[in-house]
Amino acid sequence: MKEIIIDTLIDGLKLLPFLFITFLIMEYIEHKFSKKSKNKITRAGKYGPFIGSILGAVPQCGFSVMATNLYATRIITVGTLISIYLSTSDEMLPILISEKAPIDIILKIILIKVLVGMICGFLIDLILNKGKKKKAYEIKDFCLENHCDCEHGIVKSAVKHTISILLFIIVISFVLNIGIEYLGEDKIGKLFLKDTLFSPFLSSLIGLIPNCGASVVLTELYLKGVVSLSSCVSGLLTGSGVALLVLFKVNKNIKDNIKILITIYLTGSLFGVLVNIIKMVF
User: Which of 1, 28, 221, 242 is 20 to 30 A (C-alpha) from 129?
Assistant: First the structure.
């Protein structure tokens, strides 16, 4: 147990400089482009899912939350909203970068999330045949209240974000290391239904947790070899940080919210199942 604790702490501290640099860059991007992103997505019209899925992939902590508020007043379509939810990476990117994951894996995950979000968004808008239904509302960005302390300087925000995520990674890694040490990687994998058609359904369920911890858990599970890449992507597709929580808070149509939730869950799950079937066949 002592060795597990020491190894976990050492591994966590090794990530500290990489996490801080990554979050510092992300904070700069967010402060620099958040208003521009809002303007672009507001003016996107029928091309909303295309613009939304691309902007959603940019590591901005509050973009999916901002999009939720834009949807609540029907400035953007439901297809655009879902494209943003599906492409949002939350804490995935800084963890993969700090853990020195292969660049091709990082790009593959981002590309998959963007493409799935884009296609799903266009299909939903096409089916629902939503026109340009806009209202002139002034929207308050819930990012300030719910997620990232954007009103502070980028260094202070980066430090706060780095510490909170580092502590979460250490806790998750500690639990996983104990499980691997005493149960073995195979048994842990079985708990998460690894290499089965049902694994994406479980990963997608984890992704729905309205907290940045969901993306941390899924990324760490993948890096530890507990879940496959397809199952990890399934969970990351459904993970949009606190945005779903904000959706149920600001959008009064509960049936509408539930439909969006189910759509996101099924998209993530079925995509993972599809990838697993293709792997089994070929």
Answer: 242
Range of the domain at 231: 2-281
CA distances from 97 to 23, 108, 228 (A): 11, 14, 18
C-alpha 143/C-alpha 78 separation (Å) is 20
Helix axes of 48-57 and 103-128: crossing angle, nearest 10 degrees? 150
Q: Say what the pLDDT of residue 62 is.
A: 67
Say whether 209 sits in a helix, a strand or coil.
coil
Is residue 84 within 8 A of residue 53, CB to CB? The reply is yes
Q: What whole-number distance in Å separates Cα of residue 104 and Cα of residue 115?
A: 16
CA-nearest of 89, 83, 72, 73 to 47 is: 83
pLDDT tens sequence across 126-166: 988 654 444 444 444 444 444 445 455 778 877 887 787 77
**How far is the C-alpha of 184 from the C-alpha of 119, rounded, in Å?**
39
Task: Name the domain count of the chain.
Answer: 1
Q: Which residue has the tokens 């029907």?
A: 74
**Joined tokens for residue 266:** 């099924």
On whether the pTM is more than 0.90, the answer is no
